Amino acid sequence: MENKRTQKGGSDPLSIMETLGDFTSKENWDNFFSLRGTGDSFEWYADWPELKQPLLSHLFVPSDSDSSLDPIEILVPGCGSSRLSEFIYDAGFHHITNVDFSKVVISDMLRRYVRSRPEMKWRIMDITNLQFSDEVFDIVLDKGGLDALMEPEVGTTLGSKYLKEVKRVLKNGGKFICLTLAESHVLGLLFPEFRFGWEMTIQAIPNKPSSKSNFETFMVVMVKGKSTAPTSVKSLFDDSLLSFSTKQVNSVVNAIEKENSIRNYYSSGEDILFSLKDLQLGAKGELKELIPGQRFQLILGEEGSSLYCYKAVLLDAKMQSESFTYHCAIFIVPKIRAHEWLFSSEEGQWIIVENSKAARLIMVFLDSRHVHASMKVIQTDLSPLVVHLAPEKIEDDSPIPYMMAGDGVKQRIIVQKAASKITGPVIVEDVVYESPDEDNNSSSSTEGLMYRRLVFERSAGLVQSEAFLVREDKADQDKKDSPSVSKKKGKKKNNLRRASVEPKSAFSIDHTRLASSYHTGILSGFSLIASSLEAAVEAGEKVKVVIVGLGAGLLPMFLHECLPFLQIEVIELDPVVVDLAKKHFGFIEDQRMKVHVGDGVKYVFESAQRQNNISKDVSSGESNIKETRILVIDADSSDLSSGLTCPHPNFVEEVFLKSAKEFLSQGGLFITNLVSRSAHMREHVISCMKEVFDHLYSLQLEEEVNEILYACTDKTKIETENVRKLDKLMKFPAKGIEATITTHIQRLK
Q1: 3-state secondary structure 456-499
Q2: Residue 43: which residues within 8 A CB-CB, separation 6 or more?
Q3: CA distance 303 to 726
Q4: Residue 374 CB coordination number (10 Å)
Q5: How far is CA 706 from the centre of its chain?
Q6: Where is this region: Disordered (predicted)?
């Protein structure tokens, strides 16, 4: 195998490749060393006279170090037959361990140095699987070992395994000194592997004057540190090297510039998107360690290792506790909900963490790439990826649980899907929940209560409207037994057959009960002006209720049936929603209830202007009909990224609130349904309302995201007597109002 280019004492590195063939083959190396014979020495590159000064400058421990008096432990992996260890030994560093997987060369080197340099150790060992404990060496000195493992056709597998071992056996503060030709595929592995938590310098080792080699040898020094923050690669090139400007040198300079731009990005302080590889290399420290309040974004999966890629956020609970249900959990966010404030904002994500009862939560966001994949496929694809992110467990090795943003529906029947230019896709569905309310017995089915729901796909996590369904035969009997129920309620054209439970029983909407707790909350606010309502009824005066936002029409229908003295006007922007309310939810119009298709903001502005004109006419001597007014805002926002789901931001701006106050006049009541998980947004809304109204109240619904805000134009009291007055005015009771008004409504101003 030997030829003219492989003479003793040195050679052009590229000629060795032709002689050896496969550098990763133990048999090839054994043959190579056998052919060269005993007592031979072979240097890949960088002769000692040129290497001595720059190398020895890195082998000293600082004098102020606690370990400065201890001998420096040096590991030389892939030592071969080089005299490098001999020269270092003679320079005063005796604690050198040399390893190579060739038995031939280790036996020869041991015989050669056993007497002259007895403290040097020689071990037969695979450098990709070092048989040493963790953190035992101060220096790992590689001369061509990494290059040998990094043949382009072999790939990076062996090189990665070797560098992992190097990092493992090095002490903190230790140095990995790598003598290399610094080819692009080698630096392509070396730079990212030592990007986080290592200081790196690179310099050129000059060739000896007589050398005819066109290749430069580079010394890359990596110092193992405690900080995970990446630092720039320092190049120690002198002007003579740069002026030489070979293709090899230019390639190295360009690689350093590219790497430093990457490191600057990671050091920028922006919300960095890490890869799983970055994290495994120490970008955020030790992944197995829980760090309270830690949060970062990452990409899971890559081509060849998984079916899909996933954007994810890792969050460690701010307060670590032994009471966590899960040590680590995965929370999957469907594409349709990913834009919602609860999932897209940092503040919302911490709410999810708190509710998940997990010490570490990994939120995974699905997108258009995943629309055709089943949840089983997604979980199977994710499982081998997320296992690398799990913290160390004290308990058993049970699988990491998966959670998903859902609605707890046990049974679902789609009644109709509609498309609106204003609202987008709209769904009418009948559902049975997994945990039905056993206290309600409107249905004889053992499967639990059935509800009809109106859902906007743009905010799938929020049910717009929800109604109780009752069997029509029971509804007919209730109408006979209770004259308080409007006769018009019996006209139902679109009844559901509950095929999976009672195939022959038709169901209809029950307008005598409120299924949504926030509707009950809105009605509870009427008690704040119960005295005014009572006086208006006794005097035969008008009581006008304007509701902005129809939804399924369930609240106006309940008010229509329960409080027959009300004149109700509903403003709804979307005609498709009006049609669905009439078709599937029993909404009707008559002399006491009208619906207007239009802009609620514009309606209130124009109504306030008319109110001002009427006030001027009164001052001119014209008559005026006194009227108590209630304004209810229940219109959601199409932009969920702001953190305000309901109402639309236009309804809480100061200019609108002032118009609303003018519209109500004396004795009026303003009610808005507030849905926001952002504390900042909530405070903003309340602040705006305090600027306009003198009397402000709040009802935070238990186990709901809804908060009902009430603003009165006149001073009022929160007392049981007002509840009783309202109860007398109602044709049938509404469950929970008294407890709500006396216990849960709080005065804000």
Answers
A1: EHHHCCCEEEEEEEEEHHHHHHHHHHCCCCCHHHHCCCCCEEEC
A2: 9, 10, 82, 83, 84
A3: 65
A4: 9
A5: 23
A6: 474-503
Residue 527 structure tokens: 């008690």
Which candidate, 588, 596, 599, places its Cα nearest to that of 556?
A: 588
- C-alpha 585/C-alpha 598 separation (Å) is 21
Rounded alpha-carbon distances, angstroms, from residue 266 to 93, 196, 283, 311, 367: 38, 9, 9, 18, 25
Mean pLDDT of the residues in the chain = 80
> Which of 495, 476, 473, 472 lies closest to 487 in space, CA to CA?
476
Handedness of CA 10, 16, 20, 23 (dihedral sign): positive
The mean-pLDDT minimum among 320-334, 503-517, 558-572, 663-677 falls in: 503-517
Q: Which two tokens stand for residue 128?
A: 């990709």
Dist CA 127 CA 98 (whole Å)? 10
Q: What pTM, to 2 d.p., does this model score?
A: 0.56
Q: What is the largest CA-CA distance in the chain?
A: 125
CA atoms within 13 A on the CB side of 620: 7
All residues at 6 or more sequence positions from 438 whose CB lies less than 8 Å from its CB, including other chains: none
Q: How far is CA 626 from CA 86, 528, 535, 541, 713, in A?
A: 108, 19, 12, 7, 15
Closest CA to 80 of 102, 96, 95: 102
Identify whether the C-beta of residue 699 lies closer than 8 Å to the C-beta of residue 710: yes
pLDDT at 724: 85
Contact predicate 373/320, CB 8 Å: no
